[in-house]
Amino acid sequence: MNVFSHNGQIKPASTAVIPLSNIEYAYGFGVYESMKLRKGVLYFLNQHVPRLLQSAQEIELEHPFTTEQISTWIQSLVNNLETDSCNLKIMLIGSKRPEDCNLYIIPLAPLYPDRKLYKKGAKAICFNYERWKPNSKSLNMLPSYHYYSKAKQDGCYDCLFVDNDGFICEGSRTNFFCIKEKTLYTPPLKKILEGVTYQTIIYVAQENNYKVIEQDINPQDLPNYEGAFLSSTSSKIMPLIQIDEFEFDGISAKLKELMQLYNVFLEQCNGEFKGVR
Q1: How far is CA 142 from the centre of its chain?
Q2: Which domain holds residue 60?
Q3: Which of residues 108, 143, 160 is at a domain's end?
Q4: Which end of the chain is more exposed for a tag (fewer CB within 10 A), N or C?
């Protein structure tokens, strides 16, 4: 990618540097969002930007930026790109003084999971770990990076974090659901990051008469469900065929139906979303 945005100014990608002396960046005092641009359609801008600012509030990161400013800067960068498909990473890095904060918008190559996984299902592995301030998407990603790397070494798509009470909460970069017939089960919102894809999946599910229940999910109870899946900006709905040693009996009919409904939604929504009903 040839350009990026820094505090609203579009600059050559070759000048994208962060000083080694920036202690806030080094210590992870910042928040981020990942968005996708596909065939010229920018998805869910009106959800991603407010959540970026909500994450900043969660970690008490004071800054001068507004929703309108950031949205305008994202659109401006998109208009100056030489591609119509990429991922966008928005990073808000804190400082000792709010006026010295920095906001970077960086275009990255799009991520496309292996299509075979949508047909045969992916694997996940559990680790005991609780994220600090789970409702924020902070730059403090060392544990997530560590456990995600271990999961990849074991041939898994992602890892799943199990809290101190023994319940599955979320993946290192994904939300987690179980499904039984036309009911989705999701960990309590207070324990997880409410992803934008998570919100849109719930919207599509409810619009098509699926029920959604928030409840704790114990790994030992997985046999009580017909299936499970992960969700994220790049993954959309990624069905799981195996979690640790437990294997599901394929991808359930209702999960396949939901995957198809969600793909249709993405094709027809033109990147806009009004909210969960």
Answers
A1: 16
A2: 3-108
A3: 108
A4: C
